[in-house]
Amino acid sequence: MSAPVFQSFGPGAVLGIIGGGQLARMIALAASDLGIRSHIFAPEPENPAFDVAAAYTVGAYEDEAALARFAEAVDLVTYEFENVPAATAAFLSQRKPLHPGARALAVTQDRLSEKAFVADLGLAVAPFRAVDSLADLEAAVAALGRPSVLKTRRFGYDGKGQVKILPGTDLDEAYRAIGQAPAVLEGFVTFSREVSVVAARGSDGSFAAFDLCENEHRDHILAFTRIPAKVTAGTEADAIEAARQIGEALGYVGVFAVEMFVVGEGAGESVVVNEIAPRVHNSGHWTSEGAETSQFHQHVRAVCGFPLGSARRRGRVEMENLVGDAALRWRDLLAEPGAHLHLYGKREARAGRKMGHVTRVSPEQA
Ligand code: AMP
């Protein structure tokens, strides 16, 4: 079987989405605005996205019979998370167009290949070394110094699979803490801000970036995104150009995010790329009310081969994540003029669980 070539779809098409969390839910909602029906494939019996989709399949990512039926029922496939197993992506992409493609997944699923890929483009990344043994870790720490950050190559998110190597840290313990998994050691970046570019690339090579987002984390989880980011115009332009180059080099189709650190000051300010997310991203949630096209609509437009929409910002924007019990404030937030509440329909508000978010858009200051 040869992989299908890129096709453009029209309203009425069925979009298959791998993963059933809040990102899939918001993609499905946007798709419905454009006359596209969504079919979710996810292993869990309950999912935020099931509530808003035309159809769903509960199946394991390894269940080829279920995947084949899913592929049969949809016109094209996208996904909400970067850890779609390579075999699942390959299986589906042989049957229906898969966007973003397998290369974007392969590069970004592994921190080592991701860092090497970004560095090869001539973009700044933290210095890094591969770590496959305690001896590698000792050599890497000798080379990069302390503090530094040990991260698993795969399956890390929201600070999981990560240990900071401080002056007193025992390296054997640190390596055990990440399960002695294949890892990278990164030099510590002394940054002033964390920012991200959320952008879309169309199948025709068109590119549209939202304004640079400034991100504040609490306990390793995104707490606030604010736009505009407090950086120079030159830094913002460089950050967006870096994202454009990444999208181009990946032959990317869809929305993606590039997380970056801002280092230096004034004329010496610049960005260091930390991570690429081959999907819609939490730091792009503000676009639902804060930009002329939301990241979710933009993603559906891109993967369906529609023209990209305007990414123009509508004012100063703040997005606040509602993590765990914070979502219990829903009534107050509904009563707050100008606050736009989004709840994900999750039944249980566990600590650290993203339950919803709220955006606030205010007029640009003169
Ligand atoms: P990550 O999982 O790579 O997104 O990292 C989670 C968070 O850890 C980032 O948002 C930073 O706050 C911090 N961090 C990660 N890598 C580094 C680094 N090389 N230097 C300094 N801080 C880092």
Report on this model:
This protein has 366 residues and is an alpha+beta fold. It has helices at residues 22-33, 64-73, 86-93, 102-108, 111-120, 134-144, 171-177, 233-250, 287-290, 295-304, 330-335; strands at residues 14-18, 37-42, 55-58, 76-79, 128-131, 148-152, 162-165, 183-187, 193-201, 207-209, 213-218, 221-227, 254-263, 270-277, 316-323, 339-343, 354-362. It folds into 3 domains: 14-98, Rossmann fold, CATH 3.40.50.20; 127-187, Dna Ligase, domain 1 (2-Layer Sandwich); 193-362, ATP-grasp fold, B domain (D-amino Acid Aminotransferase, Chain A, domain 1), CATH 3.30.470. The chain is built from 11 helices and 17 strands. The strands form 3 sheets. Strands 9, 10, 11, 12, 13, 14, 15, 16 and 17 form a 9-stranded antiparallel beta sheet that branches. Strand 9 and strand 10 form a beta hairpin. Helix 1 (22-33) packs across helix 10 (295-304). The model has no long low-confidence stretch (mean pLDDT 96). The protein binds adenosine monophosphate. Adenosine monophosphate binds at residues 126, 149, 156, 159, 162, 186, 188-189, 194, 217, 220, 259, 274-275.
Structural shape: globular
Query: Which regions have little confidence, pLDDT < 50, spanning 5+ residues?
Result: none
Strand content: 25-35%
The helix-strand sequence is EHEEHEHHHEHEEHEEEEEHEEHHEHEE
- Oligomeric state of this protein: single chain
Range of helix content? 25-40%
CATH C-level category of the largest domain: Alpha Beta
Structural class: alpha+beta
